[in-house]
Amino acid sequence: MPTEHNPETNSTKLKRMILSQSVEGTAIPMVLFSSDTLGDADDRAEQPEVVARAAGGLGIDLDDLGLFSVDAYRLQSALGEGLAP
Amino acid sequence: MTRWTSGHSAALTRSPIVALNFHEIGAEHRASVRETLRHVAGLGPRYDPDEPATADGPRVFVAFYDGMRDAALFGAEECAALGLKAYFFPLFEHYDPHLANVTDDEWRQIAAVHEIGFHTAGHATVAEVTHLTVQREVLAPIARIEAITGYRPRIGAWKGGSRFDPDQLGDRTARAEGIRHLVSNWSIERVPPSR
Question: Which domains does chain B have, with CATH numbers?
């Protein structure tokens, strides 16, 4: 668990993103971590292509990405959108 | 900063929680919401925070926040028709009583099929919970959910989607009142036990 629990929860950018998704009122899936998947931090795994592709599309550098950040939220949103009908 | 590793990527793609989060649902969006609910319901079993993760495959978490009346009643009915037990996070002192006036009796009917979680009384962030507001924002809504449903809520969410922080009075109080899982913008995590 990180020592700083909510480093970017108060980010204005994040609030705007969440608000825009909410006001839209449409159903866009989002993928979330569980306690179990958060515990799977083995860095020797290959980056799944779907994640690498989504990150690339968003201009996110996976080597420099923090959990619980605005960019993590953007990436998780994009991965969720990939599961939409 | 806790780094996002390739292991996190692999775990997230292997066994994601696929969440659909709703607040208001405009009448013009109902058809697409219905279609997405049907699609997502077919992706995997319902996410239950007390059940161990499946080795592979998504689990589905459908949540309706704030107790918006139209969305809550529509969502409860649509999810029930799909056999999908959803999560509802009502506010009891809503910022807009015209939008959110689900009665306790209606919540009772919803709770007979779905699950009710904690979301404060008046839409407080965890940082807004102080010794002056903790009764109103944490203790009272949890007691009210228990009175409505017959059970203490086990899952909660703060406005703003923050994760558990033991330095916050609201988090510590919610934990003491039985909240064991917290929905954040990124995760649904077990609340760590108090030491």
Answer: 6-190 (3.20.20.370)
Q: Is A31's Cβ below 8 Å from some Cβ in B?
A: yes
pLDDT tens digit string along A9-46?
Answer: 667 777 777 766 665 556 789 999 999 999 987 888 78
Chain A residues with CB-CB distance to B187 below 8 A: 32-35, 38, 68
The answer on pLDDT for A2 being more than 60 is no
Q: A62 lies in a domain?
A: yes
Looking at the partner chain, which of A6, A45, A72 has a beta carbon nearest the beta carbon of B4?
Answer: A72
B189 CB within 8 Å of a chain A CB = yes
Alpha-carbon gap, residue B136 to B3, rounded angstroms: 37
**CA nearest neighbour of B77 among B113, B101, B24, B29:** B113
Do A2 and B2 meet the contact criterion of CB atoms below 8 Å apart?
Answer: yes
Do the Cβ atoms of A34 and B36 come within 8 Å? no
Look up the domain containing A72 and give its range. Answer: 47-85
* Residue B167 predicted with pLDDT over 90: yes
Global ipTM: 0.95
